[in-house]
Amino acid sequence: MHFQTLATHTGQTRQGAGVTATPLVDRSTSWAFDSMAELDAVFDGAAPGYFYGRDGMPNAVLLEEALTALEGGSHSLVYATGMAALASVLAVAGSGKRVLAAPDLYGRTYALLQTWLPDSGAEVRFVSSQDHETVAGALQSWRPQLLVVETLSNPLVKVSDLGWLIAQAQQVGCMVLVDNTFASPYLCRPAELGADYTVESLTKYINGHGDVLGGSITVRDPEERLRLARHRAAFGATLDPQAAWLALRGLRTLGLRMRQHSANAQDLAAFLDAHPAVARVYYPGLPADPGHDLAARLFGGRGFGGMLAFDLAEATQPRTWQVMDRLKLVLRAPTLGDVATLAAHPARASHRGLTPAQRAAIGVGDGLIRVSVGIEDAEDILADFAQALES
Question: Do both 186 and 280 map to the same domain?
Fold first, then answer.
């Protein structure tokens, strides 16, 4: 089936007489059994069923089934937040290991890799995923055990050549973690390219309506699913059933929304690229963008996503805040993937935990504005930025 058909029909309650077409919310925290033998069989995994909500629940499982179908993996697990999912992978696959990572990651991912993970005995090195020569050299000489990249980097929307990176990592037995949040499974399915772990922030495009916190991991190896499930249960990073229900409802329209996000972002990027108040636009949909050809191949003509960033010609914090404060339709909010267009100042939001030198090294300056382009009429989005950018 095609993507939107899968999104519409996967993760449904088992069919039968009198079964609702839309899943119900099951808020039970535990399940009772007629006998200890039945309970024991479910505990062992020898029989299907649920026993305690922290270990699994109906709404979460329905969402996991839908995500597995859309991501192209073998199993998925859902978590209370995207960062909980990411931290779980790092704990299971990165603790005490050699970890190679791209430096231009989401700020809190970078902080986890630089501060928390080394406390486990891990050694972490950072290499740009676009620098293939250096990546290949590090993989061959250092032999890392985990590679961490983003499909589209946060916030500069740089494109990673996932097929090449995964092939190079596999040659040296290195597992690969891909944060696919900016792209979503509509644009890219890293598991089908060989990624061991695909992480999504369900909060963003998959739910898409700004009313859920959640995260997911999709794996190719069933054994990895068991390791992650044990870790999730032990640390209590379980997704609430109501949140799982809302995320599954949002997922139903993912393909429709991503097409509109991408079309609007394309229009806004072209507008900003021609504006005298803008020094540079970061969007792979622009033909001049360094990642344009790669993104066109990687995303198979489905668009280039709804995320873009731009540097103001006057790259100072006062000017940046002036432009952002003038926005009337666009919301100032430090998140992304909502139906509404959102603007953020990465230096003071997603990357505020980094030092000025660290931000400068990855291109996050005071004049950078990140935009999560929504699904409004494009003319209204462009008009709002036009008036905000007036001198």
Answer: no
